[in-house]
Amino acid sequence: RNASRKMNTSTTSQAFQTPSQAQLAQAPLNFGLEFLTSPSHHNLTLVVQQGEPLQANSVVLSLNSPVISHVTGKLGQRQYSLRGFSRSTVQRFLEAAYTGSLEEVTKKNFRDINNLVTHLEVPWMIDRCFSHFKTWTFGMDANNFAEQHYVFTEALYIYNHHNKRNYVDIVVKGFSAALSVTRFFVTNYLESVSLSCPLTALDILFEIAENKEFVILEAIVQHIDTCHTSISQNGRYLLERICETDRLRFTHRALYKSLMEKLEGAEDSMGDFMLVFKLKQISQKPSKIEDSIPYADIPNLFYDYECLKSIGDIDGLMKYLVGSEKVTNCYTFYDAVAIWLNQRGYSSYAQFIPDGFVERFAEHKTSQGWQPLSLHYIGSNTANSFNKKIFENMHPSLITYSRWLVSRML
Fold first, then answer.
1. I need a surface site. Which of 211, 215, 305, 329 has the fewest CB within 10 A?
2. 126-155 per-position pLDDT tens digit
3. pTM score > 0.85 for this model?
4. What backbone phi and psi angles, to 5 degrees, belong to 325?
């Protein structure tokens, strides 16, 4: 009988020293909180961020954490450093390991606890943290931005620091479940963040608004209207993402028109000019000028060109554009020429552009220090001698215009 007892004790001791995967799967277990405060059970010291180290039993912690199991069972260490975590956070972990219940998880301590149990690879505590997070996400007030911002920020943090996508998936599901929630959060988030926030956050925001990209457009229009400025870097990135989809082509035309109107009155920039030109390319059917001239290739951005109607000839147009403080780059200059010609019903630019006009345009560009029109922008318009001259004067070091056009078609 004594031999049997000795054999059982030895077997049990050996099993606890090196817990198997099956034993680890048994956690959580209620070992009794009273043993946490019993000095006779303490054989592992946990060094924390500040304050006195904490004492615990290596077997209890090993049954919960494969990391502790490896450190104590395989490496034989009696001390483990958790200097990156506060004493209170480690204390909560110990209480959970001894009782099999993770209590008192709040929004205030959630990140610290989740970081710790992820670091120690405690499966059941990781699951409990995720359950808490799902409860907060699906139970948040649809009109409480603070609650929404919290779960979004935590999901973003976990994705960036732990490379876990499941939290982001829950946020996307929760925020996209109802249009009112999507609209409320997207609008308030873009208003609250800095002008340039991490692209990962914007990508998640775009996921939330998937199939409802008009919500993003609404938020951008509101921002421009409120700040009386150009598109922010965040807005520009989101519009670039929208340009990748065709869903705006046949819907929400009034919103698209409103965005165009806001941009016309905002501060001009070459980046905004090209961006909105892309939006025009994916937009609805082209509008008309004077009921006959197609408007598809005329951006008409950032400036009211009604005043051009009073200019009688091309020399007067050149004089006006060179002297105008509102023409601040090659795009607005080129745009004004295109508008002026189309207002007069000229279908062919070449026959109405006199010799030397493009050369004067190029000289003015150089004197002002403007960047030349991009090849993509020039090539997007009709391949006529006017564009050919612009190409050759602004990009003299490149291949010929005709060869470049052919290369774009290949």
1. 211
2. 999 999 999 999 999 989 999 999 999 999
3. no
4. -75, -15
